[in-house]
Amino acid sequence: MALESNERPDQSIAKFESMLKTDDVYFFDAEDFEDIIHHYLNNGKITLAKKAIRIGLQQHPGSIELKLLDVEVLVFENHLDQAEQYLDELQLLDSSNEEIFIQRANIFSKKDNHEAAVEFLNKALDLTDNSFDIYSLLGMEYLFMDDYKLAKESFMRCVDFDEQDYSSLYNVIYCFEFLEDHDGAIVYLNDYLERNPYCEVAWHQLGKQYIAKNMLSEALTAFDFAIISDDTFIGAYFEKGKVLEKLGKYNEAIENYETTIQMEDPTSHAYLRIGKCYERLENDEMAKYYYYHTVHEDPLLDKGWLAITDFYYRRKNYKKALFYVNKALNIDGENPQYWKKCAMINFALERYDQADFSYKQAVDLGNYELGTWLDWAEVIKRNDDLPGAIHVLSQGQEFYPDNAELKYKTAGCYLDMNDTINARICLIDALNLDFKKLDAFKQEYPQYAATDWLRGIVAKIEKSLR
Fold it and tell me: Gene3D superfamilies, per this entry (predicted)?
């Protein structure tokens, strides 16, 4: 039995699915099939989309639009050679169909040939007045090519076409940020807001740009306007709280974070920020209360465990700090900052072997900060391994060849080994790099501060610096 279907798309979809459950055959217009297929593709129901394409082409074998949807699915499933062959056939039938060039662009994009993809998308632009989707695709290709200037221009075209296209608006601002052009982003957003004064998304993004410029009062104003535009916009309350924190207005910041908790299910990030505010207000009990709420809400949030670690570390309760940093490491054992914190705690507990191991882990995972090399060398020195300390300091000098502190410390280690020749070489290098840090060296190695050996070297360097 064949039935015609001129109903709305949702009715067509319901009728199509009813047909699949029975032996009846319903007739649909080609446009109905297009709506049905788009519905399934947009909802990720590829199997149903393929069934609709197959049945659609049985009823409308000459429909180029249905064949192009077939190509789209082939591209999605990475059957690229088959899709290209299909497109060659379609181009012979309709060489002015922009969708053919769009699908060719998709194929080249999947092959990581983004220059060719851009070329085909530009050909598609020449064939249609409806260019919104093409500019969006162009923007993505330029992002793949790291050409943020052209990507920005393409996404701007999308926003010009549809000022409610927030996805493109976000991409425009992303490009500005990557180009480190915060001033340009501010000008662009203010211009956009002249036309759309109640767009909470734009106010929110403007506030973030002001934060990047450290224009905190302007950022607060922007977030206030975002809230006026949409008083349920949680992101604006949260960002406003962060700005208030930076301004030292911790009670007001807490109010904004609490608003986000009242409006939606509590989040561990909101609890964490509230805890930090209370700690800065020196309300330790409330700080602990919210820190523990943070990890209760999300036991896998390593930053929550680290916040508790820092809380106890600052109060010199190193045993508890060690317990909680190990919690953070159990969640993210590849985080070099956590290993460094673990090393600092073990050092404070005079567990030098464990501190040595933790510093090694931190460095192996990519922490090459100056303080890491200096502190690690000190740990090894406390373990009575002066050659090991010198080796670590030499590694640090590879990253900081012009740093005087590393040279001074190396000189001190050589002096402790009674190797005055190498100590003299390192000390002369250190004095030439930064003579003013000599006082710090004398404080760290007071046993050598008043020696004739040191006075002689210092006098020689002073003379050469005059």
Answer: Tetratricopeptide repeat domain (1.25.40.10)
pLDDT digits (tens, 9 = 90+) for 231-262: 999 999 999 999 999 999 999 999 999 999 99
**Angle of helix 370-382 relative to helix 386-399, nearest 10 degrees?**
170
pLDDT at residue 90 in the model: 78
d(CA 353, CA 180): 44
User: For the chain, which residues make up each domain, given as ranges?
Assistant: 397-466
CA distance 381 to 390: 9
Buried b (16+ CB within 10 A) or exposed e, 456-466: ebbeebeeeee
Global pTM reads 0.77
- Centre a 10 Å sphere on the Cβ of residue 342 and count the other Cβ atoms it contains: 24
Please give the average per-residue pLDDT across 122-149, as a whole number.
Answer: 90
Token couple for 359: 């510093």
DSSP 8-state assignment for residue 230: -
Residues 259, 274 contacting (CB under 8 angstroms): no
144 with 174: CB under 8 angstroms? no
Residue 86 confidence (pLDDT) above 80: no
DSSP per-residue letters across 91-136? HHH-TT-HHHHHHHHHHHHHTT-HHHHHHHHHHHHHT-S--HHHHH
Mean pLDDT of 220-231: 96
